[in-house]
Amino acid sequence: MTTSTHQPILQVRSLAKAFGGNKVLQDVSFDVQPGEIVGLLGPNGSGKSTLLNTITGFEAIDAGQVLLQGKSIGALPAHRIVSDEGVGRTFQLPSMPTKMSVIEVAMAAATKQHGFWGTLLNSRAARDAEAAARAKATALLDELLLTKVRDLPASALSGGQKKLLGIVCALMGEPRLLMLDEPTAGVHPNLRNDIVSALKRLNEQGMTLVVVEHDMHFIRELCTRCVVLDRGHIVASCAPAELAQNERVLQAYLGGGNKHKEAA
Ligand SMILES: Nc1ncnc2c1ncn2[C@@H]1O[C@H](COP(=O)(O)OP(=O)(O)O)[C@@H](O)[C@H]1O
Ligand SMILES: [Mg+2]
């Protein structure tokens, strides 16, 4: 493995995952280059969330490799992939604690880059780290349009706002690669453009993004490339503008009896 500047930030090699007899991912291989915004598409049940879960260590892989800037991370547990390797992620259906405010949830996502948890025995350092985490959380909540609700219980947020808080939490770890699972599902349409703008700004600052998304407007606005899954196989890797002409993509959405109007 070279360390040239052209090295992909993420390499997925022949990844396989089954749940019992259900082969959810088979021979999945793709690369993500630094600075890309890759849309991960596919009909419901095609394995998108499972792919994010296996890359980020939330599900064990059965076979294959996951490399982050050339380093194999396929056997690492999720907490190390997040906090040591700098891979942030959000969940398709985020649930939030009832007893914590929005800003407390964001601050709790601070990782050891801020020295937050490692300094709890040292009160001065802990105070400094808490102040740093609070400042970071405050800035990110503002960026993701949650300033007005930051003192509400996190469980009181709408589904869309929980998605935004999930993005804030992922960003607290200052990831180099951010993987988002349907960030705009359930988000009010007025907010979607703001999310696109926020993600574009992050990308301009150097963040690489992989985004599971159905909304074609969002994909065209944001993504530099799309990778399409169908029943656990990658069937296409192309520019957003080429999706509508790609036979394999059309087959994936139409052949399986799926009703995703977006790709039809
Ligand atoms: N933890 C799990 N246990 C058993 N089956 C699962 C689990 N997670 C996902 N699956 C199955 O894997 C398949 C793909 O699911 P998923 O990755 O959620 O698809 P997508 O995100 O593309 O809609 C589905 O058949 C789903 O039922
Ligand atoms: Mg999913």
UniProtKB/TrEMBL annotation:
UniProt keyword terms in alphabetical order: ATP-binding, Cell membrane, Membrane, Nucleotide-binding, Transport
Highest taxon listed in the record's lineage: Bacteria
Pfam families: ABC_tran
Domain ABC transporter stretches: 10-256
Residues in the signal sequence: none
Molecular function, one GO term: ATP binding
Record-given protein name: Branched-chain amino acid transport system ATP-binding protein
